[in-house]
Every structure is written in structure tokens, then in C-alpha cells.
Write a structure and sequence with these properties.
By secondary structure, the chain is mainly beta. The chain is built from 4 helices and 13 strands. The protein has 2 domains: 179 residues, no CATH class; 33 residues, no CATH class. It is 10% helix and 27% strand. The protein is globular. The N terminus is likely disordered. One of its GO terms (biological process) is lipid metabolic process.
């Protein structure tokens, strides 16, 4: 997009046959990883000799949520209320105000919390914990599974599992393949942010934004260092959660898109 410090005409890069036309007056911020310490990335010069300011994704999300006046909408594969968005802060956190908060998370059919029996589920998404945490609050949390298309036959929507026992005949059990084995993987955080004067605008963070345990990382990809500080209580290696040894590092890219004044 930026070559020889000249901004490319966005009209020349219109996505063909899309549902929505090109919008003018917005902006895009690109991110690497959940957090980038100061002076870690090299400078990037834009047009008019302006230097690109690298953002800090999770920290910017935290401030955007706390500074929102009207709405916070989060759609994610997993949201865990115990995860800290800001761990290496670079600016003070503002105070929060009352607003509408809606959460839409994937409903892992293998996790349950009924009759005093709790199962974490195969994917360990904490969907039951998140639901219980926000149950009696003003936050509306909806767990949504994947649904198979009604156009598919019943055999494609369901699967037959044969369980064999030595002293019993075989047992055939039907369960939803799509709802159990497939997830919805949309990830976005939508908030209203400050525009000119008293006006508000919409900012949307998109990308690999899984706001749960084991997803915080920087370009350093620390696998042993700071396990007892920055990554304390956030040790996650799939099904191996002993809390010892190296941590599993992640490489994610994100962006936020800010639209023109709409509120």
C-alpha cells in the first residue's frame, strides 16, 4: 500500500463482486502479535514522511472497551474472563462507564456444567465458565454452536458411532457432526470510539483475536522466560497443562478498522 512514501489510491484495489462498496473516511491499524514492546519493530515511513506508529493490540482493545460509551460486541471462538489483556502496560487505564455488552462465543458441545458435574470439554474453551461468570450481570453472553445446513441430508448432518463391548451387542449412537466437531471461528471486537466533538464512530478489531488463556504473546515468543510473571496463571499447551516446562508460543496478526462518524 505504501511505496516511495506515496499512498496508493484505494479505488484501484476494490474487491470485485463483494456485498458492500468501498467506504471512504475510515482508517486501518495493523498489528503483530497480541503485544509489541516499544522500539522492537523498525520504523516504517508513510507518505509525507510520516512514521507509522506500531500499535499494541490487546492493550488497545482493553482501552477501547473501557472508553466505549454505547456498545461492546465481542464474537469469538473462546472468551475467558480470567485472562489479562494488559500485562506490560505503557499507559494508565481509564475508568469504565455503563454500556451495552454482548458476547457471542462458540458452544463446545463436549463441555458441560450440570448437576454439579463440570467437564472442560475437548477444546477447553471455558464456554461454561464464561456463561456462569456473566450470568447475573448486565453482560449478555450467548453460546452458539455450528449448525448444519437444512439442505443437507440427515446422514450428512449426523454421524453414526459404533461402540463395541465384549459382553453387549454393538451400540449405535447418532450425534451432530457439525455442532460437535466444527466451530464458528469468527473473531472480532466491536466498540464505539471517540470521533470529532461529541460524535462517536465504530472501531472493529479483527484477526486471530482469541481472548482466552495461552494466546498472549509478543514478537520475542518467550517459551521459558517470564513464565512466573507475564505468563503467570496463563500456561496452556493443549491437553498438557501441568504448569511446567516451556509454553506454546503463537504467531498472530490482527488489525482494527475505524469507520467514519456514524453515531
Amino acid at each position: 500500500m505504501y511505496r516511495s512514501r506515496t499512498q496508493t489510491d484505494p479505488d484501484r484495489f476494490v474487491v470485485q463482486d463483494s456485498y458492500f462498496p468501498v467506504w471512504h473516511g475510515g482508517s486501518v491499524m495493523l498489528y503483530q502479535e497480541a503485544h509489541v514492546p516499544d522500539s522492537m519493530l523498525s520504523e516504517v515511513e508513510l507518505e509525507d514522511w510520516v512514521v507509522f506508529e506500531h500499535g499494541k493490540c490487546w492493550e488497545d482493545i482493553c482501552h477501547a472497551i473501557l472508553e466505549a460509551h454505547d456498545l461492546v460486541y465481542i464474537v469469538d471462538w473462546s472468551i475467558y474472563h480470567k485472562v489479562k489483556l494488559v500485562r506490560e502496560p505503557t499507559k494508565p487505564l481509564p475508568s469504565s462507564e455503563g454500556l451495552q455488552v454482548l458476547l457471542l462465543v462458540w458452544d463446545d458441545k463436549t463441555s458441560h456444567s450440570k448437576f454439579g458435574i463440570n467437564t472442560s470439554g475437548v477444546m477447553q474453551t471455558h464456554d461454561e465458565e464464561t456463561r456462569k461468570f456473566f450470568k447475573h450481570s448486565s453482560v449478555r453472553c450467548l453460546r452458539s454452536p455450528r449448525y448444519a445446513s437444512s439442505k443437507l441430508s440427515i446422514f450428512k448432518q449426523q454421524a453414526c458411532f459404533m461402540l463395541w463391548f465384549s459382553s453387549f451387542p454393538r451400540f449405535c449412537h447418532f450425534f451432530s457432526v457439525v455442532g460437535t466437531l466444527f466451530t464458528h471461528h469468527q473473531k472480532c471486537v466491536i466498540v464505539d470510539t471517540q470521533a470529532h466533538g461529541n460524535n462517536r464512530k465504530i472501531t472493529t478489531f479483527i484477526g486471530g483475536l482469541v481472548l482466552c488463556d495461552g494466546r498472549y504473546d509478543t514478537l520475542e515468543h518467550r517459551i521459558l522466560r517470564d513464565i512466573d510473571t507475564v505468563y503467570q496463571d496463563d500456561y496452556h499447551k493443549g491437553r498438557e497443562n501441568s504448569g511446567f516446562g516451556w509454553r506454546e508460543w503463537l504467531w498472530k496478526i490482527h488489525c482494527d478498522i475505524t469507520f467514519a462518524e456514524v453515531l
